[in-house]
């Protein structure tokens, strides 16, 4: 149900099956340096997630963990520790994508989904004050076991899933409408077609003499060619 709902958003896809998180891998390899005195360190794999929400199959926008049942230990480890760590790595990756735009940082957020059998928990991580992360946790959402529980449990579940879809859709639109890329493109085109002289640009060579024409490697009995230009 979650995969089908989120994939109705343009550019959004859901990856299942213990996929490695690229955001987590990037954090683990921040101190990795080229080989010099010591041997090049092997690249560390990212944290494996049961669910990863991606935008255009490149940018990660959400994570998820799945267990067959909640035995209290799974709740502590999966929802309390593993999922929030992956959410923070994903949030920092999104900030890097928008190049730490202050206007967008407070608007972006990351979703974390934790399922235990027929139970679903939705967590949202954001950074409203630019120096600490905040997690907003939902109540337990349950898929009903019998028909009698349909009105009581189905409506809150559907409402939460629709809110989740709107949240992911809003984040996707924020990534599309960022203005820094347009500004960089405009400035680069301006530099490329500007008539002003730039010391960093090598001027075009109109005519060049080869060493042979200058007489350095002229073979005996062979006259130097005249430069006709």
Protein model, in words:
With 229 residues, the protein is an alpha+beta fold. Helix content is 37%, strand content 21%. The chain is built from seven helices and seven strands, in the order αβαββααββββααα. It has helices at residues 2-6, 22-28, 73-97, 102-105, 150-176, 180-192, 211-214, and strands at residues 12-20, 48-55, 59-67, 109-116, 119-126, 134-137, 141-142. Strands 1, 2, 3, 4, 5, 6 and 7 form a seven-stranded mixed sheet that branches. A hairpin with a 7-residue loop joins β5 (119-126) and β6 (134-137). The longest helix is centred in the last third of the chain and has 27 residues, at 150-176. The relative contact order is 0.11.
Helices and strands in order:
Blueprint (H helix, E strand, L loop, with lengths): L1 H5 L5 E9 L1 H7 L19 E8 L3 E9 L5 H25 L4 H4 L3 E8 L2 E8 L7 E4 L3 E2 L7 H27 L3 H13 L18 H4 L15
Parallel strand pairs: 3-4
Antiparallel strand pairs: 1-2, 2-3, 4-5, 5-6, 5-7
């Amino acid at each position: 149900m979650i995969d089908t709902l989120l994939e109705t958003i343009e550019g959004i896809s859901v990856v299942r099956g213990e996929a490695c998180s690229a955001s987590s891998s990037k954090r683990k390899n921040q101190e990795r340096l080229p080989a010099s005195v010591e041997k090049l360190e092997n690249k560390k794999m990212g944290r494996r997630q049961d669910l990863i929400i991606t935008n255009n199959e490149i940018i990660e926008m959400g994570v998820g963990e799945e267990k067959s049942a909640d035995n209290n230990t799974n709740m502590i480890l999966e929802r309390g520790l593993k999922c929030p760590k992956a959410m923070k790595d994903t949030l920092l990756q999104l900030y890097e994508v928008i190049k730490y735009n202050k206007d967008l940082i407070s608007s972006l957020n990351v979703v974390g989904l934790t399922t235990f059998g027929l139970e679903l928990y939705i967590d949202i991580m954001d950074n409203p004050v630019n120096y600490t992360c905040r997690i907003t946790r939902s109540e337990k959402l349950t898929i009903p076991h019998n028909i009698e529980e349909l009105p009581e449990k189905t409506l809150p579940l559907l409402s939460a899933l629709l809110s989740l879809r709107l949240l992911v859709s809003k984040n996707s639109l924020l990534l599309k409408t960022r203005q820094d890329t347009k500004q960089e493109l405009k400035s680069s085109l301006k530099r490329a077609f500007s008539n002003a002289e730039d010391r960093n640009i090598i001027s075009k060579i109109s005519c060049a003499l080869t060493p042979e024409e200058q007489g350095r490697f002229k073979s005996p009995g062979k006259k130097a060619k005249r430069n006709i230009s």
